[in-house]
Amino acid sequence: MNKILLSIAVFCFLGVNAQKVTENKFSLNGDWKFYAIEGQGSNSLQVKEEPTDIIVDNADADFVAIKGKWNLKKVGTKGATFYKTDFLQRTYKSGEEADNYVRFRPKISKKGNFEAFVRFPFETNLTTQFTVQHADGKVATYANQRSRGDQWISLGIYTFNASKDNFVEISAKDEGGVSADAVLFRPISDAVFSNAKNLPNQVYLPQFNDSKWNRLKVPGHWGMLNNFSNYVGKGWYRKTFNLPVNWKINANEKVRLQFEAVYHVAKVYLNGKFVGEHQGGFSPFELDITDKVLAGKTNVLAVEVDNNFLVGATWNWGGIIREVAVVKNNAVRITQQYIHAEPNLKTGTALLKLRLRVENNSGVTENIQINSAILDIKKVAEMNGNLAVLAHSIQEINLETTLKPEDVKLWHFDSPNLYQIQTTISENKQQLDNQTNTFGIRKIEINDSQLLLNGEPIRLGGFNRVSEHRFWGSSEPQELLEQDMKLMKEAGGNFMRIMHGTQNERLIDLCDKMGILLFEEVNVRELSNPEFNAPIFDPYPKEWIKAMVNRDINHPSIIGWSVGNELKNHYDYGRKMMEYVKTELDPYRLVTCVSNTGQKDSATPETDPNTFADIIMHNMYQWQGKPQDILDIIRKKWPNKPIFISEYGFDPFQTPSLDEDKEILSDWHDNFRNKNPFVIGTSLWTFNDYRSGYAGTSDEENRVWGVINSWRQKRRLFDRVKKELSPIKDIQVEGIDFDKKEAQVIVPIRGLADYPSFSLKNYKLVWIFKDANGLIISKNEMNLPTIHPQDGLWKGRIQWTKLAAKPMSLTLNLENSIGINRFEKTLSFQVPNPPAIKEVIAGNQSVRVLFDKVAGATEYQISYLNSVNQLVKTPKTIADYIDVPQLVNNQSVSLILTAFNDKGESKPSIKVIATPNGIALPPLVYDAFIADQKLVIGYATTKDELQYKVRYGATEKLLNKNFVTNVKGMLSIDLKDEKVIYFQIKSVLKTGESNWSNIIKAKK
């Protein structure tokens, strides 16, 4: 590979002749058609047992063959439920599948077509093997038994012949617990069987009629459709498009399809011809369609998507989850530019190193001229060079320049200064291609106990954010990403392991702009995953991490890469993959492999890839032992490496309530405060609740861990975390004098050995007075001097002008340079105004009280006299409703509502009489809005609920439309162009129907 190194001074930008770049791009986002073929997957919510089904339970001795020792169990692991009264279980060791299995044989008397479904309770094996022997051969598939427990899962449609040995066999190649419970064989009509066999070879053809297929948005996922909310398997997308009329494709140009991400396997067809495939649900990829795309005619694009590869506890949101585009460019193009900006902290200068990769798809050598310019300084820094690129090759050129001190603004999590570099390549002054990238100038260093940013030792806190939303799934729109990044920064997030898998690049753009240090991680969580044929250095992990690094290499927020999460038997994999990243992809950033086993006796410097990591990233949970013991063990084994706690967390919350908190969080942070200085930061699991098929999920299929819920509502834990991760301990206000209009402010600073710890530069203090109605009557601010951890304390005086009304409260905010609130302190001068009960919904031995929040209040409580005339007070809540339990049906009770703040308790509301009516409360609605021509409702569910009914309409008085579904946690209803909808929801239980909810307004 040809490499040229030039050192270029800074001078004025001359450029090449102004020519329109021949690269063109247009989006294929928007409406697509979607369909799933029977037998290629299943939605467990739609599989109900029918009289004609043949069900073989593990207890049916005449139809079940067992080889090896299996245990009969009547209690599921982790409380898992199962079919009928018992199931079979064994703990496999690697390579035992031939010696130990359970076979379920259907009870059939003649040849027939059947769809086979398997059912199992939770177990620990991630790669359980299901082998179907049928009339035409044998097929093996795999499933993660930690997910989708106790539900019927399709293995496909087959022909079974009574004269042959037909069975479904359960075994495993890898170690871990395996359960065998029941298999269902469903008779399939000849027509359905014919479709299952023939449609996969027809649906990608241009002439195929897709008029009855579903409309589905891209980016998106098929769970947005109620009928596919829990679908796992293969789904088909189709879209027609025409190339822009001004596109003229010549022999020197290429046309490509670019996919940002398709979860998890994509097979792409254009105009009936196979274009290519890609495996890896979070990785971007492109396909050359030059010889298949039609100019001036309609093109038909079809994509088969398979989300069967389940890894870990997160949801596998199947579909085309990120952007799709068609790109036309020259045969010679830029495939990557990498700008590494290294500041000299003594001189103030910065050395910029540019690595440019150029691809030549033509049949001749191309001699190109290169001009790169930094656009964000007064005098443009320019780097020029020449490169001869051989035919059908990719070659590199390396260029350098140095920025003067006056042109250098360092990137920092509190001052995220950014630059842009624009590079053009041309031949004979004819521009061939250009590329613009954003970058930052910052210096990351480590020693045996510290992480230094721009020369300053820092200790930081952050989160693991699961990349999803209950409606948008992992196809997160820009507004959601912006909302989450703002919330994460507000909660104190500065340093994160951002989750397993290549992230939406828009999210990383926001981390660049808002200031969040990241380790980005490839989606490798289990080396025994059946899609990995050679896990030591498999092409898929290598391909995924290469795509991730090459795409994201310029982002200043990313300070390191992780090659996997919580792997087993990964010494060779970790060593070789980290070496690959450092030597071939990115020599400047930190590289690691996240572990949760470093504290075990079996993990030693000779057996664990922590030895080759730049920093130890350890996931620490209570099951491992006491935090101090864990840290002592790891530090003793690897004394020359700082430790980042890449995950730490506790048991999921007992309920999804916003009132949930974790006081133990503060106790754990004491393990880092003024001790264990080699712990450079932590990342809480998790920032947000997330959907999961794992054991231990809530009834609405969520893992309830987050400081916010799936609908982005803050829990009590949010404020705790915000205080815990603040660089200051408090804001104290003394000597408030309303006559002199001033007060003294004292701010205790977290010291060098505290956690977190960093300097406050370009911060300001904002103080706001509000009246009894919550209106701002005075707002002032002052710029603070640079405050260092060793300063210990900052004192100052705030002043204000005459207040227009009597103040209810004074709020002081500590804000960084981009306006992020880092600490908030409110002092109330009076109790809140009395709140009012808005509505009461009757329930079974309970009622739900709804109210609007009042200014200055932080908590609310209901009080009442029970049936024996005792005063009862509900727990205080931060929500806008209170469920009052343990009432007597048909016996009225008088309820009063009070509000609280730091000054005390408000006067009570007007009494409201409520009467439980013996009918269940309706589902609690978390959120409701209109998006993508759908009414989206997020709601709580219970195990006893079978269905959900919605009545809705354009006004409160005309709820004239009805909808029914059995989907848990989130439903969507197709609309036309409505911008406002009113609705009510109720549940259908085995014992009857619940009451209707209050009428709720949803808008776009």
Descriptive overview:
This protein is mainly beta and 1004 residues long. The protein is 9% helix and 41% strand. The protein has 8 helices and 67 strands. Strands 3, 4, 17, 18, 20, 21 and 23 form a 7-stranded antiparallel beta sheet that branches. Strands 6-9-14-11-12 form a 5-stranded antiparallel beta sheet, with no helix packed on it. Strand 54 and strand 55 form a beta hairpin. Helix 2 packs parallel to helix 3 (505-514). The protein is globular and about 100 Å long. It starts with a strand and ends with a strand.
What's the helix and strand layout?
Elements: E1 5-8, E2 24-27, E3 30-35, E4 41-43, E5 54-57, E6 64-67, E7 71-73, E8 87-92, E9 101-104, E10 112-119, E11 128-134, E12 137-143, E13 153-160, E14 167-172, E15 176-180, E16 182-187, H1 190-198, E17 214-218, E18 231-242, E19 253-259, E20 265-270, E21 273-279, E22 285-288, E23 298-306, E24 324-330, E25 332-343, E26 350-360, E27 366-374, E28 381-389, E29 393-403, E30 419-427, E31 430-439, E32 444-446, E33 451-453, E34 456-458, E35 460-464, H2 478-490, E36 495-500, H3 505-514, E37 517-521, H4 539-552, E38 558-565, H5 571-585, E39 590-594, E40 616-621, H6 627-637, E41 643-649, H7 664-669, E42 679-685, E43 690-691, E44 702-703, H8 716-724, E45 732-737, E46 742-748, E47 764-770, E48 776-783, E49 793-799, E50 809-815, E51 821-828, E52 837-842, E53 847-851, E54 859-865, E55 871-873, E56 881-884, E57 893-901, E58 904-905, E59 912-914, E60 925-931, E61 934-939, E62 945-953, E63 961-965, E64 970-974, E65 980-989, E66 992-993, E67 1000-1003
Parallel strand pairs: 1-29, 35-42, 36-37, 37-38, 38-39, 40-41, 41-42
Antiparallel strand pairs: 2-24, 3-17, 3-18, 4-18, 5-16, 6-9, 7-8, 8-15, 9-14, 10-13, 10-16, 11-12, 11-14, 18-23, 19-22, 19-24, 20-21, 20-23, 25-26, 26-29, 27-28, 27-30, 30-31, 32-33, 33-34, 43-44, 45-46, 46-49, 47-48, 47-50, 50-51, 52-53, 53-56, 54-55, 54-57, 57-58, 57-59, 60-61, 61-64, 62-63, ...
